[in-house]
Amino acid sequence: MLSLVNNRILPLFGIRIERVSNFKAREQERQRLETLAASSNARQRIIKLAKLLKPHSAIGQSKVRIGRKNDGGYVCLDDFKGIKGAFSFGIFNDVSWDSEIADRGIIVYQFDHTVDGPPTANPNFRFEKKRIVASGGNTPTSTTISSLLTQLGDVAPSSLILKIDIEHEEWEVFEKVSDEELSKFSQIICEFHSFSRVIEDSWFARAKNALEKLHRRFEVVHVHANNYAPLISIGNIPFCETLEVTYGSRDRYTFGPLGQPLPTNVDAPNDPDRPDIYLGYFEFDGG
Q1: What is the distance, to the nearest Å, from the Cα of residue 146 to the centroid of all Cα atoms in its chain?
Q2: Is residue 263 reached through a cis peptide bond, with omega within 30 degrees of 0 on the bond before it?
Q3: Distance CA 142, CA 56 (A)
Q4: CATH number of 44-257
Q5: SS3 content of the chain, % helix, strand, coil (to 5)
Q6: How far is Cα 230 from Cα 73, in angstroms, rounded to an integer?
Q7: What are the C-alpha distances in Å from 163 to residues 28, 102, 108?
Q8: Low-confidence ranges of the chain (pLDDT < 70)
Q9: Domain boundaries of the chain, sorted by first residue
Q10: At 225, which helix (H) or strand (E)?
Q11: Whether the Cβ atoms of residue 142 and residue 131 lie closer than 8 Å to each other
Q12: Max Cα separation, the chain?
Protein backbone atom coordinates (compact mmCIF):
# COMPACT_ATOMS: atom_id res chain seq x y z
CA MET A 1 0.00 0.00 0.00
CA LEU A 2 2.81 2.44 0.90
CA SER A 3 4.44 1.80 -2.46
CA LEU A 4 1.16 2.44 -4.26
CA VAL A 5 0.63 5.73 -2.43
CA ASN A 6 4.22 6.86 -3.05
CA ASN A 7 4.24 5.93 -6.73
CA ARG A 8 0.72 6.85 -7.83
CA ILE A 9 -0.80 9.48 -5.56
CA LEU A 10 1.75 11.55 -3.66
CA PRO A 11 3.85 12.51 -6.72
CA LEU A 12 0.88 14.65 -7.73
CA PHE A 13 1.60 16.77 -4.64
CA GLY A 14 5.41 16.58 -4.80
CA ILE A 15 5.77 14.63 -1.53
CA ARG A 16 6.73 11.12 -0.48
CA ILE A 17 6.19 8.99 2.62
CA GLU A 18 9.20 7.23 4.16
CA ARG A 19 9.10 4.38 6.64
CA VAL A 20 10.22 5.33 10.15
CA SER A 21 12.90 2.61 10.12
CA ASN A 22 14.33 3.93 6.84
CA PHE A 23 14.29 7.49 8.11
CA LYS A 24 16.12 6.50 11.31
CA ALA A 25 18.76 4.61 9.35
CA ARG A 26 19.32 7.56 7.03
CA GLU A 27 19.56 9.94 9.96
CA GLN A 28 22.05 7.70 11.78
CA GLU A 29 24.21 7.50 8.66
CA ARG A 30 24.06 11.29 8.24
CA GLN A 31 25.17 11.78 11.84
CA ARG A 32 27.94 9.21 11.43
CA LEU A 33 29.33 10.99 8.39
CA GLU A 34 29.10 14.39 10.09
CA THR A 35 31.06 13.03 13.06
CA LEU A 36 33.62 11.49 10.70
CA ALA A 37 34.09 14.76 8.81
CA ALA A 38 34.71 16.72 12.01
CA SER A 39 37.05 14.20 13.67
CA SER A 40 40.70 15.21 13.98
CA ASN A 41 41.50 11.66 15.13
CA ALA A 42 39.99 10.24 11.95
CA ARG A 43 42.03 12.78 9.96
CA GLN A 44 45.29 11.61 11.52
CA ARG A 45 44.37 7.98 10.99
CA ILE A 46 43.41 8.28 7.32
CA ILE A 47 46.64 10.14 6.57
CA LYS A 48 48.61 7.28 8.13
CA LEU A 49 46.80 4.76 5.95
CA ALA A 50 47.05 6.93 2.84
CA LYS A 51 50.82 7.23 3.23
CA LEU A 52 51.02 3.44 3.04
CA LEU A 53 49.07 3.62 -0.23
CA LYS A 54 51.20 6.24 -1.97
CA PRO A 55 51.68 5.06 -5.57
CA HIS A 56 55.04 4.80 -7.35
CA SER A 57 56.20 3.80 -10.80
CA ALA A 58 57.77 0.41 -11.42
CA ILE A 59 60.87 1.36 -13.36
CA GLY A 60 60.94 -0.08 -16.85
CA GLN A 61 57.41 -1.47 -16.61
CA SER A 62 54.28 -0.33 -18.42
CA LYS A 63 50.70 -0.75 -17.21
CA VAL A 64 47.87 -2.59 -18.89
CA ARG A 65 44.18 -2.88 -18.20
CA ILE A 66 43.09 -6.48 -17.71
CA GLY A 67 39.37 -7.24 -17.90
CA ARG A 68 36.46 -5.24 -19.16
CA LYS A 69 36.44 -1.48 -19.59
CA ASN A 70 34.42 -0.61 -16.49
CA ASP A 71 33.69 -2.45 -13.25
CA GLY A 72 35.55 -5.77 -13.24
CA GLY A 73 38.67 -4.54 -15.04
CA TYR A 74 41.90 -3.77 -13.18
CA VAL A 75 45.17 -2.04 -13.99
CA CYS A 76 48.21 -4.32 -13.70
CA LEU A 77 51.88 -4.16 -14.54
CA ASP A 78 52.29 -5.60 -18.03
CA ASP A 79 54.71 -8.25 -16.83
CA PHE A 80 53.65 -11.89 -16.77
CA LYS A 81 56.96 -13.59 -17.59
CA GLY A 82 57.49 -16.66 -15.44
CA ILE A 83 54.05 -16.43 -13.82
CA LYS A 84 52.85 -19.96 -13.05
CA GLY A 85 49.38 -19.23 -11.73
CA ALA A 86 46.87 -16.63 -10.59
CA PHE A 87 44.47 -16.58 -7.65
CA SER A 88 41.15 -14.83 -8.23
CA PHE A 89 39.28 -14.31 -4.97
CA GLY A 90 35.70 -13.13 -5.52
CA ILE A 91 34.38 -13.50 -9.08
CA PHE A 92 30.58 -13.14 -8.76
CA ASN A 93 29.27 -12.75 -12.34
CA ASP A 94 32.32 -11.20 -14.02
CA VAL A 95 35.42 -13.15 -15.03
CA SER A 96 36.75 -10.76 -17.65
CA TRP A 97 40.02 -10.31 -15.70
CA ASP A 98 40.31 -14.06 -15.20
CA SER A 99 39.67 -14.76 -18.89
CA GLU A 100 42.39 -12.44 -20.12
CA ILE A 101 44.88 -13.89 -17.64
CA ALA A 102 43.86 -17.44 -18.62
CA ASP A 103 44.23 -16.59 -22.31
CA ARG A 104 47.89 -15.79 -21.59
CA GLY A 105 48.35 -19.45 -20.72
CA ILE A 106 48.16 -18.94 -16.95
CA ILE A 107 46.05 -21.23 -14.75
CA VAL A 108 43.52 -19.15 -12.78
CA TYR A 109 42.40 -20.60 -9.45
CA GLN A 110 38.99 -19.05 -8.71
CA PHE A 111 37.24 -18.94 -5.34
CA ASP A 112 33.81 -17.55 -4.52
CA HIS A 113 31.32 -18.98 -2.03
CA THR A 114 28.41 -16.92 -3.42
CA VAL A 115 28.19 -18.54 -6.89
CA ASP A 116 28.14 -22.08 -8.25
CA GLY A 117 30.72 -21.42 -10.94
CA PRO A 118 32.10 -18.87 -13.39
CA PRO A 119 29.61 -17.40 -15.88
CA THR A 120 31.83 -18.40 -18.80
CA ALA A 121 34.16 -21.34 -19.24
CA ASN A 122 37.89 -21.43 -19.94
CA PRO A 123 40.17 -24.48 -20.00
CA ASN A 124 42.57 -22.66 -17.69
CA PHE A 125 39.94 -21.96 -14.98
CA ARG A 126 40.00 -24.00 -11.77
CA PHE A 127 36.93 -23.00 -9.73
CA GLU A 128 36.00 -23.91 -6.17
CA LYS A 129 32.90 -22.71 -4.35
CA LYS A 130 34.72 -21.64 -1.22
CA ARG A 131 35.02 -18.57 0.92
CA ILE A 132 38.46 -17.07 1.44
CA VAL A 133 39.10 -16.67 5.17
CA ALA A 134 41.99 -15.48 7.30
CA SER A 135 42.49 -18.68 9.29
CA GLY A 136 41.05 -22.15 9.85
CA GLY A 137 42.75 -24.04 7.06
CA ASN A 138 41.04 -25.82 4.20
CA THR A 139 37.43 -26.96 4.82
CA PRO A 140 34.60 -28.01 2.50
CA THR A 141 33.31 -24.42 2.45
CA SER A 142 36.34 -22.20 3.02
CA THR A 143 40.09 -21.98 2.58
CA THR A 144 43.08 -19.73 3.27
CA ILE A 145 46.01 -18.40 1.28
CA SER A 146 48.28 -20.62 3.35
CA SER A 147 46.28 -23.74 2.49
CA LEU A 148 46.20 -22.91 -1.21
CA LEU A 149 49.95 -22.38 -1.37
CA THR A 150 50.50 -25.67 0.43
CA GLN A 151 48.30 -27.46 -2.11
CA LEU A 152 50.30 -26.00 -4.99
CA GLY A 153 53.49 -27.43 -3.55
CA ASP A 154 56.88 -25.86 -4.25
CA VAL A 155 56.00 -22.30 -5.26
CA ALA A 156 58.86 -20.05 -6.32
CA PRO A 157 58.97 -16.43 -5.09
CA SER A 158 57.11 -13.91 -7.26
CA SER A 159 55.63 -16.65 -9.46
CA LEU A 160 51.93 -16.00 -8.74
CA ILE A 161 49.47 -13.14 -9.15
CA LEU A 162 46.61 -12.41 -6.75
CA LYS A 163 43.41 -10.53 -7.53
CA ILE A 164 41.15 -10.11 -4.49
CA ASP A 165 37.73 -8.51 -4.13
CA ILE A 166 36.02 -10.17 -1.17
CA GLU A 167 33.86 -7.33 0.14
CA HIS A 168 35.46 -6.08 3.38
CA GLU A 169 37.13 -9.37 4.40
CA GLU A 170 40.40 -8.46 2.68
CA TRP A 171 41.61 -6.63 5.79
CA GLU A 172 41.62 -9.68 8.04
CA VAL A 173 43.04 -11.92 5.32
CA PHE A 174 46.04 -9.64 4.81
CA GLU A 175 46.46 -9.07 8.52
CA LYS A 176 46.87 -12.82 9.09
CA VAL A 177 48.84 -13.90 6.01
CA SER A 178 52.59 -14.35 6.57
CA ASP A 179 55.41 -12.41 4.90
CA GLU A 180 56.73 -15.67 3.47
CA GLU A 181 53.35 -16.42 1.87
CA LEU A 182 53.16 -12.92 0.41
CA SER A 183 56.59 -13.40 -1.16
CA LYS A 184 55.07 -15.88 -3.62
CA PHE A 185 53.22 -13.09 -5.46
CA SER A 186 54.68 -10.73 -8.05
CA GLN A 187 51.56 -8.57 -8.14
CA ILE A 188 48.56 -8.17 -5.87
CA ILE A 189 45.47 -6.36 -7.09
CA CYS A 190 43.05 -5.66 -4.25
CA GLU A 191 39.83 -3.73 -3.76
CA PHE A 192 39.94 -2.20 -0.28
CA HIS A 193 36.59 -1.28 1.29
CA SER A 194 35.06 0.84 4.06
CA PHE A 195 37.59 3.60 4.73
CA SER A 196 34.81 5.52 6.50
CA ARG A 197 35.24 3.02 9.36
CA VAL A 198 38.67 4.49 10.13
CA ILE A 199 37.17 6.13 13.23
CA GLU A 200 36.58 2.65 14.73
CA ASP A 201 39.57 1.52 16.80
CA SER A 202 39.44 -2.17 15.86
CA TRP A 203 38.96 -1.45 12.15
CA PHE A 204 41.83 1.05 12.06
CA ALA A 205 44.19 -1.30 13.89
CA ARG A 206 43.43 -4.12 11.46
CA ALA A 207 43.73 -1.92 8.37
CA LYS A 208 47.01 -0.44 9.57
CA ASN A 209 48.45 -3.89 10.29
CA ALA A 210 47.39 -5.18 6.89
CA LEU A 211 48.77 -2.22 4.92
CA GLU A 212 52.04 -2.19 6.87
CA LYS A 213 52.52 -5.89 6.16
CA LEU A 214 51.89 -5.39 2.45
CA HIS A 215 54.21 -2.39 2.42
CA ARG A 216 57.13 -4.50 3.67
CA ARG A 217 56.96 -6.81 0.65
CA PHE A 218 55.39 -4.60 -2.00
CA GLU A 219 55.18 -1.09 -3.35
CA VAL A 220 51.93 0.43 -4.57
CA VAL A 221 52.12 1.01 -8.33
CA HIS A 222 48.54 2.05 -9.04
CA VAL A 223 45.48 3.38 -7.21
CA HIS A 224 42.00 3.81 -8.63
CA ALA A 225 38.83 4.96 -6.87
CA ASN A 226 35.69 2.90 -7.37
CA ASN A 227 33.10 5.54 -8.24
CA TYR A 228 30.19 3.28 -7.29
CA ALA A 229 31.18 4.11 -3.70
CA PRO A 230 30.89 7.67 -2.39
CA LEU A 231 33.63 10.22 -1.97
CA ILE A 232 33.53 11.01 1.75
CA SER A 233 35.00 13.58 4.12
CA ILE A 234 37.33 12.14 6.76
CA GLY A 235 38.52 14.85 9.10
CA ASN A 236 37.72 17.27 6.26
CA ILE A 237 39.97 15.30 3.88
CA PRO A 238 38.13 14.10 0.77
CA PHE A 239 38.73 10.36 0.56
CA CYS A 240 37.33 7.37 -1.29
CA GLU A 241 35.23 4.76 0.45
CA THR A 242 36.58 2.04 -1.88
CA LEU A 243 39.99 1.88 -3.57
CA GLU A 244 41.43 -0.51 -6.15
CA VAL A 245 45.14 -0.88 -5.41
CA THR A 246 47.82 -2.63 -7.44
CA TYR A 247 51.03 -3.76 -5.74
CA GLY A 248 54.35 -4.82 -7.27
CA SER A 249 56.83 -7.05 -5.45
CA ARG A 250 59.96 -5.41 -4.04
CA ASP A 251 61.83 -8.60 -4.94
CA ARG A 252 60.92 -8.32 -8.61
CA TYR A 253 60.80 -4.59 -9.34
CA THR A 254 62.54 -1.33 -8.56
CA PHE A 255 60.51 1.81 -8.03
CA GLY A 256 60.59 5.54 -8.63
CA PRO A 257 58.26 8.54 -8.38
CA LEU A 258 54.84 8.29 -9.95
CA GLY A 259 55.11 9.74 -13.42
CA GLN A 260 51.57 10.99 -14.03
CA PRO A 261 48.43 11.85 -12.07
CA LEU A 262 45.61 9.40 -11.53
CA PRO A 263 43.42 8.27 -13.18
CA THR A 264 45.46 7.53 -16.31
CA ASN A 265 44.48 6.60 -19.84
CA VAL A 266 44.32 2.89 -18.89
CA ASP A 267 41.76 3.61 -16.16
CA ALA A 268 38.00 3.70 -16.62
CA PRO A 269 35.17 4.55 -14.23
CA ASN A 270 33.56 1.54 -12.58
CA ASP A 271 30.19 3.21 -13.13
CA PRO A 272 30.26 4.32 -16.78
CA ASP A 273 27.43 6.81 -16.18
CA ARG A 274 29.50 8.87 -13.73
CA PRO A 275 32.90 10.53 -14.17
CA ASP A 276 35.98 8.89 -12.70
CA ILE A 277 37.28 10.24 -9.38
CA TYR A 278 40.39 12.39 -9.71
CA LEU A 279 43.18 11.34 -7.33
CA GLY A 280 46.14 13.33 -8.66
CA TYR A 281 49.37 11.88 -7.25
CA PHE A 282 47.57 10.56 -4.15
CA GLU A 283 50.04 12.16 -1.74
CA PHE A 284 49.09 13.09 1.82
CA ASP A 285 51.11 15.15 4.28
CA GLY A 286 50.75 15.62 8.03
CA GLY A 287 49.36 12.91 10.29
Answers
A1: 20
A2: yes
A3: 34
A4: 3.40.50
A5: 30, 25, 45
A6: 19
A7: 34, 13, 10
A8: 1-20, 286-287
A9: 44-257
A10: strand 218-225
A11: yes
A12: 70
